[in-house]
Design brief:
By secondary structure, this protein is of the alpha/beta class. The chain has eleven helices and eight strands.
Length: 350
């Protein structure tokens, strides 16, 4: 529908688009490429976020700018290169997020017709949260549902995504009404989608793994002590998954990966625990990543390369990585149901 002037408005009143509701999906981010300068820009934005690294900028920024960002773009760039979607010229996270958005957009169209606009943004890199909020406002969205795609809440993920969203709203002359989505770590439909993916993977294996390792992205233990609920929500996700699968405690384990810096992080560390399991006789393991809604550098490179190597060097024989839910139909159905619940009171299904 073309833009129109409000009824009884003066002839020079600006034309306004038809009001609609925006659903803005958000994920962590992606570099534009794996070359040094692309990686430096991306890592500089990411590691300058006080939600991620909360040390005093007076101490942290000199170390970051003069030491870390001199070396780390090379190693991180090599890691990204090993998983890069060369055909599309983008990271797997971006490819998968586009696919998720397209499927959710179709799901919303079936539920609500043309009155809901679906798009995605990244907390770091592009497309930025600010640019996508601006596009939605320009398109006529007078209400926006912001959906960080993190099953479990953490200050370094969900909260910083919300920060960027609120900062983008602060720039708008006519600010839309807004809602943010709560974490969905314990929703039965999400747990069921996880369980189905594991059951499918196990069904395709010739020998059942000795144990399933649920590897979550780590955070400093200090964050837990300061009130961040992430650790507890991860533990509950694993427990609910175990109950849905009908397994006992010996068949599943929670671990944490991606430690960065000198502090103690949530433990056990995945890279160490898989080696311990191999040494203890667990020669056939499977690993999944329930904290990630889409496969990315932490799953495709860190789990399926670095962590796998740690397991094999300790004597492990069979390592199975179970992909993230990505754009799996059960996952899309669960995410769409979350959105529908959060749109309640704003719009009714057609």
């Amino acid at each position: 529908m073309t833009d129109t002037r409000p009824t009884h408005a003066a002839p020079d009143h600006p034309a306004l688009p038809k009001p609609k509701i925006g659903v803005l999906l958000a994920n962590l981010g992606t570099p534009e490429n794996y070359d040094y300068w692309s990686m430096r820009r991306y890592l500089g934005e990411f590691l300058s976020d006080r939600r991620v690294i909360d040390y005093s900028p007076w101490l942290w920024q000199p170390l970051l700018q003069l030491v870390i960002l001199t070396k780390r773009p090379f190693t991180s760039g090599a890691a990204y290169k090993s998983i890069w979607n060369e055909e599309a010229g983008e990271s797997p996270l971006l490819t998968i997020t586009k696919a998720q958005t397209a499927k959710i957009e179709q799901s919303m169209k079936e539920r609500y017709g043309s009155d809901v606009m679906v798009d995605f943004c990244m907390r770091y890199g592009n497309p930025s949260t600010k640019s996508r909020v601006k596009n939605m406002v320009k398109a006529g969205c007078d209400k926006i549902l912001f959906f960080p795609l993190y099953p479990q809440y953490a200050g370094a993920t969900s909260a910083t995504a919300n920060d960027a969203f609120f900062a983008a709203l602060a720039k708008e002359k006519w600010q839309p009404a807004s809602r943010t989505v709560q974490p969905y770590f314990d929703r039965p439909d999400y747990i069921d989608a996880l369980a189905q993916s594991i059951e499918r993977s196990y069904a395709g294996l010739s020998t059942r793994p000795d144990i399933l390792v649920c590897s979550y992205h780590g955070v400093p233990i200090r964050y837990l002590m300061e009130g961040d609920p992430y650790h507890c929500q991860c533990q509950k996700t694993t427990r609910l998954l175990k109950e849905r699968l009908g397994w006992d405690d010996t068949e599943i384990k929670t671990t944490f990966q991606s430690k960065f810096g000198p502090e103690d992080w949530l433990q056990p560390y995945t890279v160490e625990e898989v080696a311990r399991l191999a040494e203890a006789g667990k020669k056939n393991i499977a690993v999944c990543a329930p904290a990630f809604s889409a496969d990315c550098i932490e799953t495709l490179e860190e789990i399926n390369e670095e962590i796998k190597e740690s397991f094999e060097e300790a004597g492990g024989e069979v390592f199975t990585y179970i992909p993230c839910l990505n754009d799996d139909d059960a996952h899309i159905a669960a995410l769409s149901s979350v959105i529908e619940d959060n749109l309640s009171g704003w719009i009714d299904p057609v």
